[in-house]
Amino acid sequence: MTQYYETLKDVCENALLNMYLEVSSNNRFTPIEKRTQIIKKFIKPKLKMSKYKVIKPELKRLALVKATISLESELHKLLANMQKYKGKGDAEALLFDFLGNIHVWTGLMIQVANKYTVAEPGNVYLLENETFTKLDKDGHYIKPINLFVYLDADNDLNTVLSQIQQDERFNISVSERFDTHAKLKVLPVNELQ
To answer: What average pLDDT score do residues 76-103 get?
Structure first.
């Protein structure tokens, strides 16, 4: 899991534990408004801590919830969704780290493209929704990701492809190739059958 998910998960779990401990010390029923208030009281100080900077927008959203909304059930839903999509987040983080490396190694810009995007030289394109449609529910790639490399006439495609293939975490194959552009199929090495 990425730092973002780990930090958010820890805060959610600890907020719920804190609330349950406080509620259990009271012999009477604790209404939703009071439970929400306890959780918000736990979350608010974390807004100012640098340790939680990566999840600050989420903490703000949770801290500003109306008292009539069950923050307890919202945290349970959030934790369930985080568990459900945990693998997908890891797979996407790996892919975006790889795309960042391509930019550093080649100097090419990485862009997300849709069906209306006009390709320009000096870019690597990833089709929108490519990462979502190629992953199963557990975050494993079921098909390779397609990347489209478009170069200026003076860039050598062989040089760029050899730079891209530096990342040993991925198997990269050229499915189509022309003078100044190529279509690549990218699959993490651990996903190969």
So the answer is: 78
